[in-house]
Amino acid sequence: MKNPASLAPAEAMDYACKALSAGGIGAWELFLHQEQTLNVEVKDRAVESLEGARHAGMALRLIESGRMGFSYTSDLSPAALEELVARARAAGREVSPDPLFSFAEPDPAPMSQLAIHDSSLAGRPESDKIARAAALESAALAFDPRLKRVRKAEYSETEDEVYLWTSEGLQRRDRRTLCLASLGAVAESGSDSQIAWELDFSHWYDKLDIASVGRRAAAKAVGLLGAGPVPSRRCPIVLEPEPAAELLGVLAEAASAEAVVKNRSWLAGKLGQRVASPAVTILDDGRFEDAPDCFPFDGEGERSRRTVVVEDGRLDSFLFDRYRGRQMGAASTGNSRRESWTVPPQVGTSCFFIRPGREEGRALVGQLSRGVLVEQLLGIHLADAVTGEFSVGCVGHLVERGERGAPVTGVVLSGQVGKLFNRVEAVGSDLRFFGEMGSPSLLIGKVALSGK
Predict the structure, then answer these.
(1) How many alpha carbons lie under 13 Å from residue 129 in its C-beta half-sphere?
(2) Among 62, 72, 373, 408, which is least packed, fewest CB within 10 Å?
(3) pLDDT tens-digit map of 83-128
(4) 121-159+174-223 belongs to which CATH class?
């Protein structure tokens, strides 16, 4: 329950600044995140759940005698903010001094705005948003008679407001909205049942294509009816954007400077070396408006920017926050990430993606005389980010003479993610994002698939 004495966000920031000054603390960083959410789930054309919430919290980092202290609170009352400062000071006394600790300074260059906040969202009637979830379910069920039911036809939205101030004079504030539709479609034929998931997002309410999400999920599920294992083979494959993005996520963890410093990255020591096919360029761009996690500044207030991680197959840069940058003699790349106000920031991706090519995804499939179109991966969460090794189940379709054929499941793709990306022969134009990771379709030269 919200404390009736809680201050508004800007007032809470002002009060905390004064408390820090009164305490004689010269180096500090205040982060405040306010989030308003709505989630609607429909089942059988009726509202299954409707949940709305507003949360806010503040995190404080301070430096005294070279020691970094951290604390947080979800109570923005004056008394709680005073306690926040006291707890952070106490925490700092338990930490060893480190000359690399620092906070962001003001950036004299003007920061252009991103088109990521829909000011009309909060004023839209709740009934319209319920209708969107219902339309999502209806679009899937109307696609094919074999589409029997739907799991979690869901519309959700979030409005974020972030403040970040430092003792160096930096003051950042910005907002973002995100609308999301997701659905699991279940197709049945006789004793066979297949499920497929789809999602899409937009920063703008009117630009989210609800019906398309439902139809795509239904088409996937129906297309997998009759799927089964096939004999082991060595053949080229096309990875659709989602499985390609999931494999990219394994590489992304290795691109963190923190992983490199801790000797937990297979990319360590490979700057300037080839780590992927010349067809592959990998970017991290926190200002890429077509990605869900774009934002003008990072978790330390550094300006978001585009970093070329891999250019034409060669490793060009790691991802740095302020601390890891100073540790490795590099500047921050704007890659400090905060999972929430309850934990300190650390190095992470913002909008990490493979630069799209010029050919449509289906054109890549058309180049296969005999191969497999991979639409889903099973078990990618078990991949080893330290070594880049993985072993995943694949769901998709056989491809014969450039045409999609029988659905397949029960085949296994194993390897090392760098070696796999070294086999990329062509990159599609159909870039899609799935959280922080984005990829177009990828045509990959012959790989071993283990089957029955």
Answers:
(1) 25
(2) 72
(3) 999 999 999 999 999 999 999 999 888 888 999 999 999 999 999 9
(4) alpha beta
| Residues recorded for the chain | 452
pTM: 0.96
- pLDDT(216) > 80: yes
pLDDT, tens only, 44-64? 889 999 999 999 999 999 999
Would you call 45 exposed, middle or buried from its count of C-beta atoms within 10 A (0-12, 13-18, 19+)? exposed
Q: pLDDT digits over 129-139, tens only?
A: 999 999 999 99
Q: Is 74 within 8 Å of 56 (Cβ atoms)?
A: yes
